[in-house]
Amino acid sequence: MEILTLSDCFLKSKTDKKATVKISRDGIAIKAEGGEVYTMEKNEVKDAELFHGSRKMAIRIFGNAVYEINNVDQNYIDELKRMFSEYFKISLYVKELEIADVLCGELGINGQKALEFRSTKTIFEVPVEDIESVVDIRNELSISLKDVEIRFVSNKKAIEEIKEGCSSSVDDEIFKMEGLSLAYPRGKFNLIFFRDYLRLVGSSYDHKVYYKSVRQLYILEKGYIRDEERYVVACVDPPIRQGQTRYDYIVASFDDAEGEMNANDERLKKEYSGLHSEIFTEVMETLCVIKAVRSMFESRDGMRCLRCAIKAYEGQLYPLEDCVLFLPKAIRLGLNEISLVEFSRINLSSMQAKTFDMTLFCEGSYTFNGLSKDEFGMLEQYFHSKGVKARSEIIDDGASSDSEEDDYESENDSMVVDSDSYDS
């Protein structure tokens, strides 16, 4: 049996792998570095094309999957054409690419499920499955890949066709939630769940979040214990992007609305009912294979959080099992990252101040202002129980003088006391 062997090739993937390709009358086999073997039987080979790649020639084979092989020696072109014609009844040709007029052209989804930009020749094409998000901004269409964003100027009708093509060419939806409010990034989005990823579709932005990229999940009451208004927070890596801003956290804001929803996937229940926040959390836990973290902290007035502010942002601070989390502008500080906690304005009388400040030192420092003095004991106990070093700044507000000497003494009346000294 005649077998053509292509050595020293590269199989395109997230990181190109060195590979050897063998083509025979019975099919095609690709052995990648590391031992992975990919095979296509004769009847599975549907189409193929040759083009000039980054390494010599490249051949793209469409079968049970799409395989792109780079670094094919040009001397094999005639032999490849003959074998594909004889064995697979495919007319293999060298696809010409546009290298001069690359700024204007037509954009569309071709028959190979790829987004193609072309004039008289193909300028470039990207498999739909590699597209992370499609964003419609006025008359611009923004296509986001892993590390690249490409923008096209087009009319509204063409943009809608591309957005529809990029969504419908990939998968069927298995679950959907409409009109969900996000507190971070801000906006209203429809959440469409597919088999391997979630799409957040807003009026201006469209994001794709793979379930495997969700690292942590939190469901937190906005106020009092058993409060039905909640935040659900997903930590994602890589982050989603809107313009030049990257968001490592997606913060969904839920009121006390209830409802019934249907799902279409063997991993999910057929029907869900109850609070929207609980339904969303249960679906995310199942698809992301992750357990949502809930707050066990209880303040003196029965809240799961502490109201405060950081810089110009007001919100809630949640002391959790392994971190402190500020919402809705998400700031997460792991307890193992915090080297020191410093409380200030603690000993001032209630006439002077009803709140205190807290600074957390890690790689940088984060100062939370306006914490209620009633919560100081609970917060101090929380950090002590987690083994985080804390100290309090004690200020003698009775020391005052107009003289430089008294000013100096007043400055030295301000001292720092480790919270450990109170433990006894």
From TrEMBL:
Major location (coarse): nucleus
Domain of life: Eukaryota
CDD domains registered for this protein in UniProt: PH2_SSRP1-like
Record keyword DNA damage present: yes
Histone chaperone RTT106/FACT complex subunit SPT16-like middle domain boundaries: 303-393
Example of a GO cellular component annotation carried by this entry: FACT complex
Subcellular location(s) of the protein: Nucleus; Chromosome
Composition bias, Acidic residues: 402-412
Molecular function via GO: DNA binding; histone binding; nucleosome binding
Any GO BP annotation: DNA replication
Keywords, alphabetical: Chromosome, DNA damage, DNA repair, DNA replication, Nucleus, Transcription, Transcription regulation
Compositionally biased region (Low complexity): 413-424
Family: Belongs to the SSRP1 family.
Function: Component of the FACT complex, a general chromatin factor that acts to reorganize nucleosomes. The FACT complex is involved in multiple processes that require DNA as a template such as mRNA elongation, DNA replication and DNA repair. During transcription elongation the FACT complex acts as a histone chaperone that both destabilizes and restores nucleosomal structure.
Name of this protein: FACT complex subunit POB3
Organism: Encephalitozoon romaleae (strain SJ-2008)
